[in-house]
Amino acid sequence: MVSNGEQTSMDLQDSIPIIDYFLLTLGTVDDRSKVVHDLGKACQDWGCFMLVNHGIPETVIHEMINASNDFFNMTKEEKVEFAANGVLDPIRCSTGFNPVDKHKDSLWREYLRLIVHPEFHCPHKPPGFSELASDYVKRTRTVAMELVKGVSESLGFEELYMNEELNLDSGFQLLAINYYPSLVEFDTPRGLMPHTDHGLLTLLYENGVPGLEVLRNGKWVGMSDVPNAFLVLNSDHLEIFSNGKYKSKLHRTVVKDERKRITLVNPNGPSLDTVVGPSSRLVDGGNCLPGYLPMKYSEYLEMQTKLTMAGKHAFDIVRLHI
């Protein structure tokens, strides 16, 4: 962990959990049992963890980051055909400021958002970009779906229970690539306002330039750099489905480094037509009251985008105050 002005220093007893993907998927029965336990504890206590030994070659990830850099280095005229406004537009490229609050300066970034499952969409340029992205998202989807199996078990369900209940075979996967230019390119505050993600789990990989912070015990904490690791974040629909046991992780980006920062972000969620509420297994029988209103996933995405830009949260609508 790193700390700065407003952050708290963290001791080794409170460092971010590290989950070993190899032991989860290819370890012994005892290995998997321990990792499932650790995974549940990480989701409940931290809301995020670092994933190591995930099996995606570092060369593949770095080629994807380099190709993303090539995309953002294209001229505005070359990128304009990929501009879009709707949250469910298959390809959406945009630039500009995003508000932090009424009294502070806004933060700037450029982004490319691609819907990559159940159908794959990607710009046809620069050359080779689409092929790299297709390979990358298939690999990250495999990792995400294996993690969901472990999360399902950690909640006391069968490993395929969440997959079947949320129709994950037709699930919505997004690839969001965020570009924060160097100070040489753009001399202004760079970053992304505090937010949570839609979906179940978000996989995030950065190019080595720091900036991501998570809210931990009321303090913003910078994430440590674990080599060739993904940061995995609880997302809104994991909180909803678990009826609040696994809270969605609030995070933000504040780029103070002079270098450019590029992040590859993969939210993974249910199918767009799936109505998501607390698992019936957690609330049936009156043992636990539902804490969230059921809502179709596509409707939640539309609502979340509008509320986030207004400084609000979709949970303001779907969370039941009981």
TrEMBL record:
Protein's recorded name: Uncharacterized protein
Natural source organism: Arctium lappa (Greater burdock)
